[in-house]
Model the fold of this input.
Amino acid sequence: MLIESKPLLSQETKLNNEPIITLQDVSVAYRVPKERIGTFKEYAIRTLQRKVQFNKFLALKDVSVTINRGEVFGIIGNNGAGKSTMLKVISRVLRPTKGRVLLYGTIAPLLELGAGFHPELTGRENVYLNGALLGYDQDEMDAVFEEIVEFSELREFIDAPLRTYSSGMYARLGFAVATAHVPEILIVDEILSVGDEAFQRKCNERMQSYQEQGSTVLIVSHGLAKIQDMCNRVLWLDHGQVQMIGDPTEVIEAYRRSNQ
Amino acid sequence: MNTITKPVYDSAANASPALTEIQELKHYRYLLKQLVRRDIVARYKRSALGVAWTMLNPLGTMLIMTFVFSNLFKSVQSYPVYILSGLIAWNFFAQGTNAAMSGLVWGGSLMQRIYLPRTIFGVSAIGTALVNLLLSIIPLLLVMVITQTTIHLTFLFLPISILLLTAFALGFGLLLSALAIFFPDVAEMYQILLMAWMYLTPVIYPEEIIPAQFMTIYRINPMYWMLKMFRMPVYEGVIPTLQDLWPALAWSVGMLIVGWIFFTSRSDEYAYRV
Done:
């Protein structure tokens, strides 16, 4: 492997170099039509004229990386560098155009908080619906329901329809459901700037405790300080390619320099 | 590299998407239940009569149709039962396929964020419509009692009719939703097509008024056969003969297989497109 991991001292015991996510020469190409074709008629005509043209846009180019069990792995890069695409490929949303993705553990994507909630249903009903969307079954949700209510601090409102919730309450419930089970791989897209400071601290504590319990955490953020704080290793993506990978301090410094 | 442990997910391993999808769907069966539940509960949450609307709806349509057409189709005995037995089947098909189509477009935003079996929105849409169909059997029985129509033992054939129609609707719904993702116009076109299709199917008028020279056209209409599966045991009180059964069976099995394979073979592209 090209990339050597540099485990931090405190993490040494857990980072046993057992891969949990492996990307082998992964490329993702979006086909962007040169002109939007939305109707049959247009499509038929243009196909006949052989005028359906696509610009190939490579969101990821030959990305290879191995993330080990127990790591807190950060992904940084400018807008459009391919960070979200990389998460999508890892969380099985997109199948790579080229290359191979291997997962050796179950994945719990942190659903953009509240996505999949239904405003007419109660908090309780939404907890079960959201849990089902994340792939859990009834028993698994029953087991953590109390804990979710406790963590989200929404006991009084749990049987009220979600449309009566504030956006902060929405997000709290979303986070509580998404992190109710200790996942093998936890994906965090843009550190959650929701809820008040106290709740944010709670979120961070929970993620930390999961990591201590052996979960692998994947973080994508623009908050470099936070990344430097939390991660063992950082990957810098630029125009879909791996620029640098390794120690957070070094990578972030190089990234900062390039942006000046 | 650790080659001994088997990966939980391998993006390169997808030899038969049609079969993999069945396994995935089985794994997500609780979500299926939740989605059906959500559709039914959320829809009637704010209405006073709630789920009763599922039964009142076909009943209302039946009353209007009876009022408008019973004079026109005097030859039809107990017209309310005739129309209702066809209408519940047609409504199921129209609602289910429409919901399958819009469900995938709606679910598209979710599918860009998390992994879900791609067929789940289509299957849950048909599931919701199926619950509605089962509930609308109650008003059908009620109308039969009120109009003093004999309820034949052949009524028990209905589960088979429902199974056939469900398979057909699912296959067709998946086919439609795959097309609608690539061509949003399909959703609009389908509304017009549905209307034409309904008038080309003996839902509100008796089969006898179809001119003989057009019967060939009717015979290639799958919904003509599906409706027969409902009308024969409920309204006529006879078990469909093999002659009537095999076209319905062929359509439903064929459509399910074609729709399922067509949909799943393209399922990797949806997240790129929606």
